[in-house]
Amino acid sequence: MSVFDVEIDALTGGPAELAQYKGQAVLLVNVASRCGLTPQYAALERLQQQYAPRGFTVLGVPCNQFMGQEPGTPEEIVTFCSATYGVTFPMTEKTDVNGEGRHALYAGLVGTADAEGHTGDIRWNFEKFLIAPDGTVAARFSPRTEPDAAEVTTAIEAVLPA
């Protein structure tokens, strides 16, 4: 099953309709507003602006499983992200990425290894998965890998649609 076939709601309500991203490259990131890595939102938004015209989107997935660092309501999350970091990329509903309540979206991702060989549970906020236009996982990046790091941008450019 492709990532694009998974059902999940948008942060602001209603289905996120991941099928709309078929044929595009997607950087899927579990995000949080009160984390030491939260400034990565700025680089994620730069990627969105740089690559969106070429068939790319960042998809933020808020998660409150890591020390309660995403406690806000959907409205608070949207306001924080747009006012603080100018975020324009889409976001899903707040989701569990680990444990018994792990969302099906992440169940299909965690088997992918990152550059260090890590598979399994999401380690922290801002772990990144690059999804190819066909819905397969092209790469996984650790939370501390900056979104605009060379290895990330090189991977994005390699999977951008023609």
From TrEMBL:
Q: Name the PROSITE patterns for this protein.
A: GLUTATHIONE_PEROXID_1, GLUTATHIONE_PEROXID_3
Recorded family membership: Belongs to the glutathione peroxidase family.
Q: Do you know which InterPro entries this protein is assigned to?
A: Glutathione_peroxidase, GPX_AS, Thioredoxin-like_sf
The UniProt entry's coiled-coil ranges are none
GO MF, one annotated term: peroxidase activity
Q: Which Gene3D superfamilies match?
A: Glutaredoxin
Q: Which UniProt keywords apply?
A: Oxidoreductase, Peroxidase
What protein name applies here?
Glutathione peroxidase
Q: Which organism is it from?
A: Streptomyces hesseae
Lineage top rank: taxon: Bacteria
